[in-house]
Amino acid sequence: MNSSLQTKRLALQFDVTAAAGFGEPMQLAVELLLPLGKAPALLFVCIPGGGMNRRYFDLPTPEGEAEVSFARTMLEKGHAVLLIDPIGVGDSSKPSDPYELHPERAAAANAEAISQIVEGLRAGTMMENFPPAPDMRIVGAAHSYGALLMVLHEAKTPIYDGVCLMGFHTCGLPVQINEEDRALDPLYAREHLIDLSRKRFTMSTITMTPSPSKRPVSAVSATDVIYLTSSYMMMLPELATPDAAAIKTPVMLVLGDGDLHPDTHATPAAYSGSSDVTLIVLSETRHNHFVYPSRTYLFERVARWAASL
Fold this sequence. Notes:
Layout: E1 7-15, H1 17-20, E2 27-35, E3 42-47, H2 70-76, E4 80-85, H3 103-123, E5 137-143, H4 145-156, E6 162-166, H5 179-182, H6 186-191, H7 193-200, E7 205-207, E8 225-227, H8 228-235, H9 241-246, E9 251-256, E10 277-282, H10 295-307
Parallel strand pairs: 3-4, 3-5, 5-6, 6-9, 9-10
Antiparallel strand pairs: 1-2, 2-4, 7-8
Helix pairs in contact: 3-4, 7-8
C-alpha cells in the first residue's frame, strides 16, 4: 500500500428527520474518508448488514494478516469512502419504538444524507481546501441488510454508477421462516411489515453477543443491534424483487460458497433491469466475507470492477 498517501477522516451527522418519517428527530452518522491532494475519481458508499455498524467496512487487521479493512484498501488506492451507520445502529439515532424501523425508512434516511454528501464533494464544498470532483463516480458497496437498503434506495432515487451487493438475495431466508410466513403475499407483507413484525416477534431487537472464536480476524468490533422488523423483510421471500428489477446501473453480486442463500447462481436473475450483472462466488467463505482470506481477491476484484464503470 501507498503509506505516503495523505488522508482525512470526517465524522459527520445529518438531520434525516423528515426523510425517515418516524415523527421524532433522527440523525444519521457517517464517516467520510478522503485522499488529500486531488479530487477522487470514485466514492465508495458502504452500508453494513444487520447487527453490524459502519466498522464492518473498516475492521482492524491483526498483525501478520492481509488487510481486513475494505475502507483502507480503497482509500489507499486514492478513492473516497463513505461509511454509514444506518438508523438504529452505531452513532445514528435509535427510534423510540424499534418495531417502527421499516427498511424503507432506513433507506430514505440514507438517500437524504448520501445525496448531500455527493453534492458537496462534487461542488468542492464538503470541506475547506478540498477540490471539486464534478466527474466523481458513485459506487455502492453494501452487505446483507445494507444491500437491501441500497437496492431500495437505488430503485426509488437512482444515484449510483454501480452497486456491489454482498451476501444478499431476494429469495429471503427460507430456513428462518414458517408456513404462515410463506403464505404471505409479498406486497401485503411489505406494506404491513411493522404490524406483522409486532405479531411475529415477542421482542423488537436482539443485542448481538459474539461467540468466542479462535480466528485472528473477526467482525466483533462492528457488532451492533439487530432490529427484527428490518430482519423480517430480509427473511420473507420476494419483498424486494420489484426494486431489484428496477435497478438499471451495473450490478456486482458477491456471495460466499457457504453463504446464507440456497441458490447462489439464480441470484442474477432478479436484476433484470440491468444489462451488466456480475456474479462472484467466494470459495471457503461464509456470510461475513471480510473475515475470510478470500477478501484479498474480493477487494481487488471490486476495485477493478469499479474502475471500469
